[in-house]
Each structure stands twice: as C-alpha cells, then as structure tokens.
Amino acid sequence: MAKDIGHFIGGKHVQGTSGRTADVFNPNTGEVQARVALASKAELRAAIENAKAAQPAWAAKNPQFRARIMMKFLDLAATHKEELATLISMEHGKTVPDALGDLQRGVEVAEFACGIPHLLKGEYTDGAGPGIDMYSMRQALGVVAGITPFNFPAMIPLWKCAPAIACGNAFILKPSERDPSCPMRIAELFLEAGLPPGILNVVNGDKEAVDAILDHRDIVAIGFVGSTPIAEYIYTRGCAAGKRVQCFGGAKNHMIIMPDADMDQAVDALVGAGYGSAGERCMAVSVAVPVGQKTADILVEKLIPRVESLKIGPSTSGDADLGPLVTAAHLKKVKDYVDIGIKEGAKLKVDGRDFKLQGYENGFYMGGCLFDEVKPDMRIYKEEIFGPVLSVVRAKTYTEGLQLANDHEYGNGVAIFTRDGDAARDFAAKVQVGMVGVNVPIPVPLAYYTFGGWKRSGFGDLNQHGPDSVRFYTKTKTVTSRWPSGVKEGAEFVIPTMK
Q1: Which of 176, 324, 420, 444 makes an SS bond possible with 93, Cβ 3.0 to 4.6 Å?
Q2: Residue 282 falls in the annotated catalytic set
Q3: Which residues of the chain have pLDDT under 50?
Q4: How much is the pLDDT for 491?
Q5: How is the chain split into domains, by residue range?
C-alpha cells in the first residue's frame, strides 16, 4: 500500500492539507510506492512563520554551538548511511553504491560547515585613524530557502542547508517531489542532533510552492539546482523580488580526447562518467570529442563493446552498473531524444531503447546508447538529454575541440585526457567552463572549493559550497569605532578621511 508523505514543519511531521498529491514511483518496478503532498501557499507560510520565529535565537548561538550540532548530525548520518542510501535508491533508481556517494558528497559539505567558527571571522584594523578602529562581521540573513532536484536527493539539499544553518539562518527546503523521503529523513536527523525545531523545514510541492517561495517577502535568499529554463525563471523572478539568488542549470559536458591519451583510461572514464546513474547527473560526460580521425576510430571501436555490455539491474541489486531512470515520463523523453538523433543523421552505434529486464518489465530501464558523427547543429548536441546517451563529436584539431566546448551555451564541466602537460595547461587556461578536469572525467570540486558552472549553466555571482557558500548565506557589516579621548575637535563638514 502506498504511504503518504507530508511535510516537516517546526520539528514535526505535518500532513498535507492542500488536497493535492503527486505519485512517488519505485523505478525498478514502475509501481506507485508513495503519495507526496503538494503544499499550498498557506502551508508554506506556516513553515516560514516557524522558521522566522526560531531563527533569531539560533543566530544568537555562538558559532561553536552551531558547529557541534553539525558534528552530531555527521555522526547520525554515518550511523544511518545505509538507510539513507536505500531511500535514495528506491525512489531515484541509482544503485546503492552510487547513492552512498550521493550522501557522502553532501556529508563533506556538512563537514566543511563544522569550521564555521573560523569561516565567520571578520577583519580588524587597530588604529585605522586617530583613535579609530575598524572591524567587520558576518551575520546571518534570516530565513532562506533551497529548491533542489531529483537527481541528488541527499547531496544537493545538504549543499544548500548545511552552510546556511551553520551561518545562523533558518532554512526552508523544497526538494523534488519525485524522491522526497531522503530529505525528510535528513531533517529528522538534524532534529535528533539538537537542531532547534523550525530551523530546518521541508515543504514538499511543485510550482505552486516554488512561486510562493519566490514571492514571500520573509525569504531573503534562494538557492536552486535544476534545468536551465527553470533556473533562469527562478533567478529572474527572485531577483525582481529583491532576493539574493543563486541558480544552477543544465549542462552539456565535453571530454576532449587527445591523440596521446591513454585510450583505455579514456574509455573507462567515458563509460563511468557517461552512463553512471543512468546519465542523470549535471556533471555527466555526454559529449566525447576525439581529436583526429585515428583517435576517433579507435575510441568508438573500444566504446561499442563496453556500452553493449553495461550491466543494468535493479538499483538495490548491488552489482549493477546502473539502474532505471527516475520516472516513465523521463524515460520517454530520453528515448525521444534518441529518435531525434537518428532523424538528424547521427550514427547510432549502440541502441539501448528496447532494453527490458526480466522480472522487472514495468521498470523504467533503458540500455546505453552511443551516437557517432554527431554535429554541433543537432539537437542531441545542443540540448541536455539527462540519460544514458553519449554523443561522439569528431574534431580535426585540438583547437577545434576547444572551440566546441567554448561555443556551447552550457559551461558546467569539461575534461581533457592527454599525456601532454602543455596541452592540459593551455586547455585549463582557455576553456570557458566553470569546472575543468585534467584526466579526471567528473571534476566536481571538493567541499572546501566552490562548485558552479559558467554561461547558461549558472546564474548569480556566488557558487555552491566552499567559501562562496558562507558569503552567500551571510551579510557583511563594517563598524568604524572611536572612543572619546577628551580632545575636542569641533564639527567637520567634509567627508571623513584618514589624515
């Protein structure tokens, strides 16, 4: 029987009252396993009121106190990691080992947030002028929100809420309605760790909840990850409402394979980065760019048997390379893109559209697809597919390969595989993409650096996690201080300067 999932407001589970719900599927079987409530504006207001009431006392706690709550959460997350990974796997469809990686990458940002006593330190200048000292401080914003996608139901909520909470804010999380159980469990664990009720609220919903977040005056900052059209919508509407907004959108990540590259290493990288998590990653490599005819021929020859032999199985099987896609609708969308690629004239070398898994015929499974001779004017090159589809775009020269990455409207991640240090250095300097890998196919920075794409992959001035997260979730106040020394200087009518 399908379970009902409501909201987590004020430290308690709250049933939905809007009368609207969405189905949560088991991607392995295609069955409905839960119904998640879709919040109304009134339900969102209740969460914001709880957050607004709780936030001042939380911000007044010293940073060490907030860091210790984060440390307790880390202990609980480690204790419950298998449970959390299973929740992810059963609703998203990624394998349990991949789900553990999803959780771990989120946990690492919570680990970074444990350093908040140091990260919030301001600056101080003694004797900036006659008897004058100056200092700055970073203070919490108030109530902030995160709108997160289906493909990383642990990692991205933690990327958003952990730094925000550590900085002294209260947080409203609107996770994807496709896989809401892990974010709800994370909120429970934060409460168990000692986080005051109301500091982390989870409001499930759809566009109605998103628009309510964008329009509510008490939410002062919003972080989003998802598709580019929605990222642009949220950024534009949020900024127009006077909010601080950071939005991260789609991607079309290229991997340049130079003639001197270790081809076996490059193929391993492409198979893992292109088909892992069924391609449902914003950092997935979806475009392989071999440089030179010989390089391209060797690469495709080696890729074909590897893609054909991908092991596809239930997400909980333990030994599958990839599991099902998240929903039937998304599966159809990916298959439609393969149809489009064929019509456009690309050469489909491996066709996984008709894959069926015995005993799981109603699951949302698809085999790996491999296109060769894809051209830059094709839709399958220009648009994000977000599925197990890899396109090979042949480049005659290194310069042409670099230009492909630079000319694309997305600029999330990119990689080059080469043994030539000079070529790698030149590529890293010249490529117009936010995250670059050198012989690393998925260059996701560690938690103490920042994550963010360029061009239409990112909207806003500050990135996710690392030092940028502290800057995003705080405002700077600068104090100029002078204590009376008994000397009368009289009134001054010109702008103050340091003489």
Answers
A1: 324
A2: yes
A3: none
A4: 77
A5: 3-249, 253-438
User: In this predicted model, what pLDDT tens digit does every residue of 463-493 receive, in sequence order?
Assistant: 999 999 999 999 999 999 998 776 666 777 7
Same fold, 3-249 and 253-438: no
> What pLDDT is recorded for position 484?
79
* 3-249 classified as CATH 1.10.10.10: no
Report pLDDT digits (tens) over 338-347: 999 999 999 9
Dist CA 387 CA 316 (whole Å): 19
CATH of the domain spanning 253-438, picked from 3.90.1720.10, 3.40.309.10, 3.40.190.10, 3.50.50.60: 3.40.309.10
Angle between helices 81-92 and 63-79 (to 10 degrees): 70
> What does the alpha-carbon distance between residue 493 and residue 143 come to, in Å, rounded to a whole number?
40
Residue 99 CB partners (closer than 8 Å, separation 6+): 84, 85, 86, 88, 89, 92, 154, 315
DSSP-assigned beta bridge partners for residue 5:
36
Cα torsion 178, 179, 181, 187: sign: negative
Q: With CA atoms as reference, report the closest residue to 145 among 20, 24, 25, 39.
A: 39
Q: What is the per-residue pLDDT for 488?
A: 65
Out of 114, 167, 247, 282, the active site residue is 282
This prediction has a pTM of 0.95
State how far the Cα of 150 lies from the Cα of 246, in Å rounded to an integer.
Answer: 18
Residue-wise DSSP of 104-118: HHHHHHHHHHTTHHH
329: which 2 tokens? 């609708």
From CA 35, how far away is CA 18, in angstroms rounded?
13
Residue 487 confidence (pLDDT): 60
